[in-house]
Design a protein that fits this description.
InterPro entries: DNA_helicase_UvrD/REP, P-loop_NTPase, UvrD-like_ATP-bd
Keywords: ATP-binding, Helicase, Hydrolase, Nucleotide-binding
Organism: Colwellia psychrerythraea (strain 34H / ATCC BAA-681)
Largest sheet: 6 strands, parallel
Number of helices: 29
CATH architecture of the largest domain: 3-Layer(aba) Sandwich
Strand order of the largest sheet: 3-2-4-5-1-6
Radius of gyration: 26 Å
Number of strands: 13
Helix content: 40-55%
CATH topology of the largest domain: Rossmann fold
Protein name: Putative ATP-dependent DNA helicase
Oligomer: single chain
Pfam families: UvrD-helicase
Structural class: alpha/beta
């Protein structure tokens, strides 16, 4: 029964009115930082449950909600008391549930794709001057792997997808394949469109600004062709767009009949921080937020530091102590009570000791998003299976070692004839191989490549096919290998080759980083979160090629291309950096310290004042 004491008001009521099963409308909700987006989403869903449950049940329909992370999905399901009328899931899981009955269509798609890849690899191999060079051999391995998969397609009776399992079979699909196949099927196949709208007359997408562009365009196309049957609701804020795969023209390319409600109250930040983030986003759009009625004034400071400072960690500790005095808040003196955020992952990688693994992967656009948020089949295998296995071996935890081997390989399974014929002997061999594996871990500089090669040698775990290809030491090529052959190697192959040469220590730190336990916060990790005290560190020494804080703060001239991109509203290092600056500053609930390292402190100060980000008396030159 609906609680009569709870009434939707404002934007929540407005959005619910769009989700009329008999007269649906679609919308894009602007929900800036701290605006209570998740609260609105849950309120609207609860209202649907209260008023429209019977109709949905009679029609055999559900309401679908797509979230960006499993954590967000779990939180929303918990608030809705796990009511089965709502399908709340990540984008990959949602798409997989749609496409998995279409085995024949999936098989045809995979077949065409594999044949195309095989043709490309065959051409590369034929052009190689040294057929035994590492590049040619790597391409040959990849060709063999794809040909094997193509040959086995005829035997596939059904396909599988599991984001938490690393076991592969002839019918296993990876993350990117699920999205690609789903996007094409939804865009091109009338049957798939009918399945979607008949099963889910309402589809709500959280963090829509970071949803895969091709998939989002497919959903929008379906809505345009089924306006009287299907309501598509997008929740998000383009200023908080983190990933490069999103639709950057979302706000300007929607059909003219879409509604555009807005949540303008910021319930998180103090007044001073809201003024700051409103001024930051002036260079991107005209959206503004207002504080809640009882918002505190808050406190911000900009500390400008010479880039040549040697001990930056010590200096940042001193800044914390200074903030404690300025704010009369002693908790600034306690490191654990202050959230230190980095605007660029490369800076955290260098400080946190995982740059050997992350930087090669993040330098390739097609790998960057997966590397930064810890997804993809290869990375998931490394962080979720390989590292726990290493930890169990190092601790001599025999029970955990056996559990991981049983779940992560085929050694202890019905498909291993040796195990079926001689289980005791097989287990003894496994124990012996684990002892040999442990010996290589004693070396503190052991590389990921060493570890994976040994794992593969003893078949202790089933490695993803791509990693098997990358194990051929392809990152640089032999010194005597013709340069033209090395150029045939893709950027992805080179990046993974370099990443595999990273030490296991760097890989372990990387895993802690993406799991938010290293002491640094990733961009996507802090989006949606909030902290009482925030220190945002800007340091161009570690900026990489995607961001440029010196340009954002006027300490470095914009290039002609920068100016063109700004004028045309195109994404660039400047706009990406501005968005990241907005996201990080908007985490603060009470006080914020921005630490900017620069070779031109005067220019930083000038821009900060002219942009109305900070006043003269809020800037400290060190």
């Amino acid at each position: 029964m609906r609680n009569p004491n709870i009434e939707l008001v404002g934007v929540d009521k407005e959005i619910y009115s769009y989700l009329n099963l008999y007269n649906p409308k679609s919308f894009l909700l602007f929900a800036g930082a701290g605006s209570g987006k998740t609260r609105t989403l849950v309120n609207v869903l609860q209202e649907i449950k209260n008023n429209n449950l019977q109709t949905l049940i009679e029609n055999g329909q559900k309401v679908a909600v797509i979230t960006y992370t499993n954590a967000a999905s779990n939180e929303i399901q918990h608030r809705l008391e796990y009511d089965p009328i709502f399908t709340v899931s990540t984008i990959h899981s949602f798409i997989w549930e749609l496409i998995k009955p279409f085995t024949s269509d999936i098989k045809d798609f995979i077949k065409v794709k594999l044949r195309s890849d095989i043709d490309v690899l065959t051409t590369k191999i034929s052009k190689a001057r040294d057929k035994n060079g590492k590049t040619a051999l790597a391409n040959a391995r990849s060709l063999k792997s794809k040909q094997k998969r193509l040959d086995g397609l005829a035997e596939v009776e059904s396909f599988t997808y599991s984001p938490t399992s690393n076991k592969t079979s002839k019918g296993t699909l990876n993350h990117s394949e699920v999205i690609i196949i789903g996007s094409i099927f939804i865009a091109d196949q009338k049957l798939m469109q009918s399945v979607l709208i008949n099963r889910y007359p309402i589809l709500l997408i959280d963090e829509s600004q970071d949803t895969n562009k091709v998939l989002l365009e497919a959903f929008i196309s379906v809505q345009e062709n089924n306006k009287n049957k299907f309501s598509l609701g997008l929740f998000g804020d383009m200023m908080q767009r983190i990933y490069s795969g999103g639709k950057n023209d979302l706000t300007t390319s929607l059909p003219p009949d879409w509604e555009t409600p807005a949540k303008i109250i910021n319930y998180r930040c103090p007044k001073r921080v809201i003024t700051l983030i409103n001024n930051i986003r002036k260079g991107d759009d005209q959206n503004v937020q207002v504080p809640k009625e009882d918002a505190i004034d808050g406190f911000v400071r900009l500390f400008i530091v010479d880039s040549n400072t040697t001990d930056k960690l010590e200096l940042e500790n001193k800044i914390r102590f200074q903030m404690a005095m300025l704010t009369h808040d002693e908790d600034w003196n306690i490191a654990e009570e202050v959230k230190t955020l980095t605007l660029e992952h490369d800076m955290a990688a260098s400080r946190g000791g995982f740059d050997e693994f992350l930087l090669p992967l993040s330098s390739v656009s097609s790998l960057r998003d997966a590397a930064l948020n810890g997804t993809s089949k290869n990375i998931n295998f490394i962080t979720s299976t390989l590292l726990p296995f290493i930890d169990a071996v190092e601790k001599d935890d025999s029970f955990e070692v056996a559990r991981i081997i049983k779940s992560g390989s085929l050694l202890i399974s019905d498909s291993n004839q040796s195990f079926l014929l001689n289980p005791i002997g097989t287990l003894k061999d496994i124990d012996s191989n684990v002892v040999e594996f442990k010996k290589i871990l004693v070396n503190g500089k052991v590389t990921l490549h060493n570890v994976l090669s040994t794992i593969q040698k003893f078949e202790l775990l089933s490695l993803p096919d791509e990693l098997l290809v990358y194990l051929s030491d392809i990152e640089q090529g032999e010194p005597n290998e013709p340069e033209s052959d090395t150029k045939l190697l893709s950027d992805v192959d080179k990046a993974w080759g370099l990443a595999l040469n990273s030490s296991i220590g760097h890989v372990k730190n990387y895993a802690k980083y993406v799991n938010e336990t290293l002491g640094y916060a990733t961009h996507q990790g802090v989006k949606g979160l909030e902290y009482k005290r925030v220190m945002a560190v800007l340091d161009d020494k570690f900026k990489g090629f995607l961001f440029d804080y010196e340009k954002l703060f006027g300490a470095k001239d914009l290039t002609k291309k920068d100016i063109e991109n700004e004028d045309l509203g195109k994404d660039s290092a400047l706009s990406r950096t501005r968005r990241l600056f907005y996201v990080i500053c908007s985490r603060a609930e009470q006080s914020l310290a921005v630490v900017a390292y620069s070779n031109d402190p005067i220019a930083i100060e000038k821009t900060a004042i002219e942009s109305e980000w900070f006043s003269k008396d809020e800037i400290v030159l060190i």
